[in-house]
Amino acid sequence: MRPAVVFILITVMLDAMGIGLIVPVMPDLLQHIQGADLSTAALWGGVLSTTFAVMQFVFGPVIGGLSDRFGRRPILLVSLGVMALDYLVMAVAGSIGVLLLGRIVGGITAATQSTANAYMADISAPKDRAANFGLIGAAFGAGFVLGPLLGGVLGEYGTRAPFYAAAALAALNAVFGYFVLKETVTEDLRRPFQWARANPFGSFRQLGRLPGVGPLLIVFFLYQVAFMVYPAIWSYFGKARFGWDPSTIGLSLALFGTMMVIVQGGLIRWVLRVLGERGTVIYGHLFDVAAFLALAFVTSGTLALILTPLAALAAVITPALQSIMSKAVAPQAQGELQGALTSVSALAMILSPMVMTRTFAAFTDDTAQAYWPGAPFAVSAGLITVGLAVFIMAPSRHIVPPEKT
Description:
mainly alpha; 16 helices; 77% helix; globular
């Protein structure tokens, strides 16, 4: 594997590690800063997640468009440097306002995941894109393995320690990338930057004109909203339902991440050969419905730890959808596509934390008519069902890539 590809995978892995590192300590950190109970901390966690997502939504197409114009290398390296500084600021935050500022900057820098995906599209033949996007998913899963484990361990030394670790990892990867990352955007592929297309709505309109892509964007959006239930409420769910401490929460997320690595790094290639891209998406949706419903009603912590890695068997959906849509887009606009998908994911992150944390709070606070910490997972199961219906009804004809624009 080329060093530059290793850097791309490490970058994605560190994005996930940065999230996973801080997730186990966020309930305790927010309770400490706010002096509030767990339900209130969950609501503030939703605000921070939503702020992060708003920045990704706004800047995803901007970053993707800039990478189409100026190249993948400068965008990735600068963003990693800013990310390292941002984690340092959050490490010393003494108020919710500073944490909020950190999430604003962090959301902008995390929008470069679109650039990492665009790089992978640049170097992949069409027939290999789903599997290679699976490698990116596997790297993200690996980050979920290492991040929560380290976060849970470091959390025992204080709620600030994981932020310092995330800053150091981002800085080290920037140095590595400086020496190994080669530019893939040649003059033939370079596309002029246009503000009219460098915004979520302009990007959606441009992509929506491509045959068959519109319904797939809807499916992608619904899946992302449903999937975001994990980072939105998992740590609060584990503490409320099972009384888990940060290390156990970290372990559970690590189990999920381990299975994501296995599924997206290897198993997806077998699934694609057997089911094809369309069949793979359908299988993933059906499995996700079953997994979310199981988590909604589980009452045993041991059983939840068993179900957590099994739920990751549905992680084939995103790479398969990305590949289908990537084949509809000209090589000159891969950054724009991935930027738009980043914005779709970010829009899901805007809505999902608000829906999931408020659902969690409604079923766990002192005024709740019924105590049901797993209620957000039932919401996710419903969204996945709708997404599956949209996908099945969407046209499955071959999509012809547009000419260079």
